[in-house]
UniProtKB/TrEMBL annotation:
Domain spans labelled Multidrug resistance protein MdtA-like C-terminal permuted SH3: 282-340
Record-given protein name: Efflux RND transporter periplasmic adaptor subunit
Alphabetical UniProt keywords: Transport
Domain Multidrug resistance protein MdtA-like barrel-sandwich hybrid, first and last residues per copy: 72-193
Protein source organism: Sphingobacterium humi
Length: 354
């Protein structure tokens, strides 16, 4: 009985071993066949693609900037005093040289009258001393003292007149005056800001450009920009730049001038700026969705021998839908544009051209 059982077990083991050997041999044949087929025998992934052709492209930079007034100041007094009159309307237009406020000058007027009296006396003393000197009745030193007193009295009058002129605040340029921070009868000092005066007949557009493109900035170049909340596109002409790149930000400060003909723009607002670089005759533009960000740059897949081939690329400017490729692909390449995130290098693909 034991012998019979042993024989049955041995036969079962031989049958099992033969089955295992057969399956191993069959799997090796299938693996060899698959290894010789493109894509390792996997079903081809269905993707969309685009044949890239060169086309004219105006390269540009998209920058952020700000709108500034052509001229803008905080109105302040040079001396302290009581406000006697306010001669402007808040938010109104004022002309260059227009009187804006006057301060009480009664004390200075009294000082001026006193100084003139002293000046008259000093002038008479100087006249008499000169006559006496001619008659050798006094020394040269005594005459010099009288003459110095006269000149000092004249200087005192000039000093008080200069102080009096500071009691009248005039507009240094034409523009729009803002909201005032004082009232009639207020006591103001040089530290008080009376109001803002802004000239918006022209506006400045201020922006910074990366040092990589600093040598492309030219006085007279035209830029375009738009402002949030204002319809339309505006232009400005570059009129000045800083002479050196800012060390901390590695950017060059640039300013352009806009005529503000429609008075639509307001100083202090942000501007979205398009700075033109150059026109490329055969720019290679690919859809933005074809690009895959990686650690050391960007890549995309092109079609080669019915398979997806990974290519590292360098990019330039972009439009709303496309990105300029500066290196990595050639004209006529078929770039895969959909399903690229799940592709692997060498994967078989079935491409539908768009």
């Amino acid at each position: 009985m034991k012998r019979k059982t042993l024989i049955i077990v041995l036969i079962s083991l031989l049958l099992l071993g033969g089955l295992i050997a057969y399956r191993i041999h069959t799997n090796k044949e299938k693996a060899a066949a698959n290894a010789g087929a493109p894509g390792g025998g996997r079903a081809a992934a269905k993707v969309y693609g685009k044949v890239i052709h060169g086309q004219p492209f105006s390269d540009f930079l998209s920058l952020s900037g700000s709108i500034e007034a052509d001229e803008q100041i905080d109105l302040q007094t040079e001396i302290s005093g009581i406000v006697e009159s306010i001669n402007f309307s808040e938010g109104g237009r004022v002309g260059q040289g227009q009187v804006l406020i006057t301060l009480n000058d009664a004390e200075l007027q009294a000082q001026l009258a006193q100084a003139r009296t002293r000046n008259n006396l000093a002038a008479e003393n100087e006249r008499r001393a000169k006559l006496l000197l001619e008659k050798e009745a006094i020394s040269q030193e005594e005459y010099d003292i009288a003459s110095a007193d006269f000149r000092t009295a004249q200087s005192q009058i000039q000093l008080i007149q200069a102080q009096l002129s500071k009691t009248v605040i005039r507009a240094p340029f034409s523009g729009t005056i803002g909201l005032r921070n004082i009232s009639k009868g207020s006591y103001v000092t040089p530290a008080n800001i009376i109001a803002k005066l802004v000239n918006t007949n022209r506006l400045k557009v201020s922006f910074s450009i990366p040092e990589k493109y600093a040598n492309k900035v030219r006085v007279g170049n035209q830029i375009t920009f738009n402002v949030q909340g204002v319809d339309g596109e505006f232009t400005a002409k570059i009129y000045a730049t800083e002479p050196a790149v800012e060390a901390n930000t590695r950017t060059l400060l640039v300013k352009a001038i806009n005529s503000n003909g429609g008075k639509q723009l307001i100083p202090g607002t942000f501007a979205n700026i398009v700075f033109p670089l150059e026109t490329i005759a055969n720019g290679l533009l690919v859809p933005a969705e074809a690009l895959i960000p990686i650690q050391n740059g960007k890549k995309l897949f092109v079609l080669k021998n019915a398979a997806a081939t990974e290519v590292l690329v360098e990019t330039g400017a972009r439009t709303d839908a496309d990105i300029l490729i500066t290196s990595g692909i050639s004209e006529g390449d078929t770039v895969l544009t959909s399903g690229v995130m799940s592709l692997r290098n060498g994967a078989r693909v079935q491409v539908t051209l768009r």
